Amino acid sequence: MSNILVYCSIEESGKKVNMPVVMAPWLTELEHFSDDLSLVHSYDIVEKLGQLNYISKDQLTEFRKIIRTARNDTKIFHREEAKSAVLLKLAYEITIEQFLEALLRSKYHVLVLKLMSNCRKGILRLVVRKVEPGPGFKQAQELYLKTKINTHKNIFKVNPTEACRNIYDSNKLKFEDCQQKLKIETDEEEKGNLKQNLMKYANICVSCLFAALDAEITRWNIDFDWDECTVSSRNELARLFHQLTGYIKETPNPNIAEVGFFSRLAIAYAMTGQLAKAEGYIETAFTLSFSIPRCSELYFMYHMFVMILLFKYQKNKSGMGKLVCIAEEARSCLQQENDDSIRYFWTRMILLRKVFCLIGLGNNMELIKGYTPSQEQIDEAKEILVEICDMGDMESRREMFFFTAKARIAQLEGDLESAIFCTELAIDCDEYRCFGETEQVQKYREQLRNLVTKTQCGNQQDIRIEN
Description:
globular; mainly alpha; 2 strands; 20 helices
C-alpha cells in the first residue's frame, strides 16, 4: 500500500503552519476506525509505550509535551489537530504491532479484538503474518482437537490427563530419535529431512501436551505455582508446563505455541484466584496472536479470555459488558472457520460462558452471590441455548454445562422440580467422574432440594395458619 499525503498543523516561529505529512500505511488503515479510536486517550498509549520500552525517555517527554498542548481535551484522537500531532508522529516511531500491544495493555481489549478480527477478515491490512506453521501442523491440530473432544466425551474412561500423556509419549520418542540422528548425520539433504521431521514432531508433541494440560485443568487443580514448574514437580500442571518449554522453540513458528502456552498459564493462575497475573498472561498471549493464522491456539485464547473475565465478574460483579463484547467478537472470528466441527466446538464453549455470566453462574458452576439476572438476560440466555442446540451433538462436558444452565434458568423462573431434574441430567453426563465441575453441580442440586423442602414447609405452615 502506498503512503498518502495529509497536512499537520504545527507551530513555527510562534505561528501555526500547515505542513504536508506522509502517512504511514498502518495509520492509513486505522483511519477507517476513527470512531472507535476517538475514545482512546493518547496519554494511555504513550505512557504504555514508554513502560514497554518501545519509545525512549526523550520521545516520551516529547509526546507528553504534545499532549499538554491539547489542554483539557479528554478525547484527543477525536480532534484532527491532536491526532495529527500525536498519531502521525507516533506512526514513524513504532510498528502497528507495538501500537496494538499498547492499546491492549491499556485495557482497550474489545477495541484490539475488533481490529484484529477485521484484519483476519481482510478488511484491515495491518499485521504481517510471520513464519507459516510448518510441517506437521495440520496433523497436530487434528490430533489436538480429536483428543480434546474425546476427553470431553469421556471416551478414555480413565484419567484423561494420563490418556493424553500416553499419546504424547509415543510422539516424544520419535522427536528424540530425530534429535539423536541430527547430531551424527553428515549428509546435508538428509539433515534437511531430519529437521523437517523434528519440527513436525515438535508440533505434534506441543499439541499432545496442550491436550493433557486442558484435561488436567478440567479437574480444577488449583494447587498451582509457576515457580514449581520443574520436571520433578509433584504438581501435574507444573510438570506439563515445564515439558512444553522444551518443544516450543523447536516448532517452525514458536509464536503459535506460545499463544497456547500463555493462555493456559493465564487460566491456571485464574483458577487459583490470582487474577492480576492471569490477565497479564492472557494479554501476552493476545499480543503474540497478532501474527498467527486461525488455529486452535487462537480459539483457545478467546475462550480463556472470556473465562478470565467471568472469574473477574464472579469476584467483583463488574465487566459483564466487556465479557459479552469479547464473546461476540470471538464468535465473529469463528464464523470464518470453514470446518463446521471446529467452528461449532469452540463457539459452543464461548457461548456457554456468556450464558453463565448472564444467568449468574461461575466457571465452576457455582452460583454468583448477590447477582439476580433480569428477565431480559434470562431470555437472551435461553435464545443462546437454543442456538447451541442447533449446532448438533455436544460432548459430555458441554452437555453438563448446558443442563446446569437450564437448571439455573428453571430455578430463576420458579420451577424447582425442573431445575433439580436438569442438575441430575448434568451429573449423569460425567459417567466416570473426570470433570472437576461435577462436585459443584452436585452441591447445586442439594441447594435446590433444600429450597424445595423449605417451600413445602412454608406452604404447610400457611395451611395451618389458614385453618
